[in-house]
Amino acid sequence: MKKLSLFMFIDALGWEIIKDRDFLKDLAPNRYRVGMQFGYSSTAIPTILTGEKPTVHKHFSFYYYAPDKSPFKMFKYLLLPYLPGAIVDRWRVRHILSKLVAKLYGYTGYFEMYAMPFDRIHYFDYIEKTDMFVPDGLKPVKNLADKLEERGIPYHISNWRLKEIENIEALIKEIRTGEIRFAFLYTAAMDGLLHMVTKDGKEIDEKIEWYSTQIQRVIEEVKKRYDDFYFAVISDHGMTTLAGVVDVKSQIEGLGLKFGEDYVAVYDSTMGRFWFLNGQARERILSLLNQVPNSHVLSEEEEKKYFIAFENHMYGEKYLLMDPGWQIEPCDMGIKALPAMHGFAPEHKDSYAALLSSEPVDIPLNYVDDFHHLMIKKMEERQD
Ligand SMILES: [Zn+2]
User: Fold this and answer.
1) 99, 124, 299, 331: most buried by Cβ count inside 10 Å?
2) From residue 311, how far is each of 54, 268, 304, 305, 340 by CA, in Å?
3) pLDDT tens digit string along 51-60?
């Protein structure tokens, strides 16, 4: 019996987006709502790839406070004095600079500086320096590729740098050889589309239709070369339409405290993260944060519940989380809010991820790390 287990990852294909659609109903009739890992894809993907929580694999947001080992010190001395802000703040320029930095340091992960100010970036380090999908990509924690290699299972995992159609073609090519027994197809364009047109955009129907056609092509090839297969679609989170914006950064800066001396902060699109460098700054910032509209400061219980209570406060001593739909504008990820965003409370209906499965699933499906456990189960079942 030659069997294949095929998992397809569609970024941001949340439960709310899929629950009333017929997408792959025949192929994958078993449909489940699954809890999101609090945070962004930067934490959801390593969680899915390792089956561990962020406090274990250490990937949460991109930037963390690390002034001594920051790789961005050169911006302070080399680039800043020569480059006018209007130029370095342009997305295209930042994208090219990000590519240069990645090359210079040999980063193989997804590296993008976003809108992090160049006069602040040297306080931070960046977590995703290596390609998380390849063997040793999340070491010392074992990832999907490590576990496949350990078991000696021939596999194919997409190259996240390629376009969706290139990854689909690469998978089809592998299937035609009939050698692989496990495949992880990665697609991410849905996320970008949902950010721009929201979950109610008519373009979403077209995109889902396109995925459907591509999957039929893949499955036809599978049926030609395998006696049996398992197929699942997994996602990491949903998408929440913009409700409004709050300029948290200006409010904090209005306190007149000195960045780098009194406090340090990162403004992600749905969350502010704060480190306090003295007691007075802590008191003043916390009392202000408690009054920021459409938001709340996460309690220690919530940090634990969301698996982000890092012992060394690597990602912040306190987190301000915006209410669903409310974005921080401007933030270090972008100057303007997007029409839709994710990274709100996992309990909100638009946050949930989804699993569409060709067979009923009999393991718990609480959070996206359970997708990892499902993948392990299927790779072990499918060994000849
Ligand atoms: Zn996104």
Assistant:
1) 331
2) 12, 21, 11, 14, 32
3) 999 999 999 9
